[in-house]
Amino acid sequence: MAGALGRVLRGLDLPPVWLAGFAALAWGQARTLPTGAPGAWAGWLGGALIALGVVLAAAAVFEFLRHRTTVIPGRTPRALVQSGVYRISRNPIYLADAMILAGLCLIWGAISGLILLPAFMALIQKRFIEGEEARIRAEFGATFDRYAARVRRWM
């Protein structure tokens, strides 16, 4: 039983699941610790952040598909993607997740919930990015090092 539960939990250890968890925390914070309506600007800005995040993630996935490599965290890519949105961020999908979380906080009026944003980014970096970059470095060596020197991790 423990083996099956462990496999299920490992299967749930994916960035979108973490994003959903942090979003649930922000939503709960907005419902239990109301900070007052931040104004219409927050809804507009939140919506814009979410829309930009979705477009950024889609553009990043498109580049993975174009280069015929995996988008799944934990798998070693067959190609080092450096084109498209990967020219401005080594992790545009995670950046998009952070933008979506910030947008949700603003839309829900969870302004104090924005403190979750750096916590989310730190967790994603530790749980996913560092391991991914180690695998990419092992696979592509100096090519990845040159890319990492040229392009920032987040933006």
Topology:
Elements (H helix, E strand, L loop, with lengths): L1 H11 L2 H18 L7 H27 L25 H17 L7 H25 L1 H9 L5
Helix pairs in contact: 2-4, 2-5, 3-4, 4-5
What does this structure look like?
This protein has about 160 residues and is an all-alpha fold. It has a domain at about 55-155. The protein has six helices and no strands. It has helices at about 1-10, 15-30, 40-65, 90-110, 115-140, 140-150. Helix 2 runs parallel beside helix 4 (about 90-110), helix 2 (about 15-30) packs antiparallel against helix 5 (about 115-140) and helix 3 runs antiparallel to helix 4 (about 90-110). The radius of gyration is 17 Å and the shape is globular. The N and C termini lie far apart (about 45 Å).
